[in-house]
Amino acid sequence: MHKIQKTGVPYYEHPAVDRLRDLNWETIRIFLCLGRTRSFRAAAQELGIATNTVRRSLEELEREVGGSLASRSAHGIELSAEGLELYTAARQMEVASYDLQRIAQQGFSELRGPVRISVTEGIGTFWLMPRLTEFQRSHPKILLEVNCTMRLPDLGRVEADIGIQIERPTNPELKFVKLGRMHAMPFAAKSYLGTYGRPGTIEEVKRHRIVQQLSPQLVDIDAVERLFPDTPRAGFIAVTTNTSTAHFWAVANGAGLGMLPTYLAALGADVEPVEIGLRTKYDIYMVYHPTSAKVKRVTATMEWLRKVFDPKVHPCFRDDFVAPEALRPASAARSFGGG
User: Fold this and answer.
1) Distance separating alpha carbons of residues 177 and 168, to the nearest angstrom
2) What is the mean pLDDT of the chain?
3) pLDDT class for 128, splitting at 50, 70, 90?
4) Cβ-proximal residues to 153 (8 Å cutoff; 6+ apart), any chain
5) End-to-end distance of the chain based on CA atoms, in angstroms?
6) Where are the domains of the chain?
7) Maximum Cα interatomic distance, the chain, rounded to a whole number of Å
8) What's the CA gap between 279 and 51, in Å, rounded?
9) Helices (H), the chain
């Protein structure tokens, strides 16, 4: 934003109202991200800009306000007292701007327009996407924009209208409901079991190969280290991956044993459950901002999502564990599988 300077008067000595009028919102936005991440590099990655751009933006903002706003420390970037004060005020502006974005959405009372869903990668790919045709038939003018990712969306910053996640939200500004519970246990391909045999205990797993998924939302990410502390990793861990789809296909094609959700059995996945007394569970939450729930197309989508994960209709999402053998689809036409 172009600034009109008064001759002979330093900019930071201008009246506060003049400085506020001239502040660049893009610079404020970068400062907010830096205040949240406390790292030049992390802020740059989140915003998709160069690290030097973040540094220059901070320097520009400090010139604008006439004081130091942040400094480096052993723990990253620390905001000064003035920086914290500016951050708090700017955050209020940011929240107000997101409210304006929501209010500006057209067709509050119409079942038309986009609805953005952020969903964990495995649930989105395997469970949600095959059911989109059901929604399209009922709501042909609603465009679902589905982002399958393990990164939690910032719903307060309007990154999505609805979030489907396995991590309980902590932001008090958001609303959430529990949709169901996802259960997981070891699975393997028939080809793998035919070659290496079927383990019957956790101890016997040490003689096998495993496929491991490393993901930030998996609460038991250190399970392998805990269960097999003395087992050499070479020849034991066959594959590690960060995505659910890659994890499934590695298991389905015979790479080794892997923890998979039991709902895959309900979809007819060509993998066999391996009962060794090892199970995990994750609650599935639908998260949304209260303002988003006032938009009719969003509420219609939320009602559909409740049905998609209804434990009464889909036993795989019950709180209590249901054996995969009882979840097999009645029609082979619904099945899919690997090698």
Assistant:
1) 10
2) 83
3) very high
4) 118, 147, 159, 160, 163
5) 59
6) 11-103, 113-180+283-314, 182-282
7) 85
8) 43
9) 16-22, 25-37, 40-47, 51-65, 81-103, 121-122, 132-138, 190-196, 202-205, 223-227, 244-252, 263-266, 296-308
Whole-number Å distance between alpha carbons of 268 and 290: 37
pLDDT band, very low/low/confident/very high, at 17 (cuts 50, 70, 90):
very low
Instruction: Let me know: does 306 contact 238? Beta carbons within 8 Å.
Output: no
**CATH number, span 11-103:** 1.10.10.10
Token pair listed for 89: 């005020």
pLDDT level of residue 115 (50, 70, 90 thresholds): very high
CATH no., domain 182-282: 3.40.190.290
Burial label for 172, CB within 10 Å (0-12, 13-18, 19+), is exposed
Assigned token pair, 327: 């979840």
Kindly report the backbone phi and psi dihedral angles of residue 277, in degrees, each rounded to the nearest multiple of 5, phi listed first: 80, 20
* CA quadruple 104, 105, 108, 113: dihedral, nearest 10: 160
Tell me the one-letter amino acid at 225: E
pTM of the model: 0.67
- Rounded Cα distance, 110 and 296, in Å: 6
Of the candidates 310, 320, 314, the one whose C-alpha atom is nearest the C-alpha of residue 177 is 310
Q: Using only C-alpha atoms, what is the Rg of the chain?
A: 25
**For the segment 21-50, what is each residue's pLDDT rounded down to a tens digit?**
556 778 888 888 888 898 998 888 888 899
Which of 221, 206, 205 shows the shortest CA–CA distance to 277?
205
Mean pLDDT across 53-71: 87
Domains 113-180+283-314 and 182-282 share a fold: yes
Q: Say what the pLDDT of residue 155 is.
A: 63
Topology of 113-180+283-314 in CATH? D-Maltodextrin-Binding Protein; domain 2 (3.40.190)
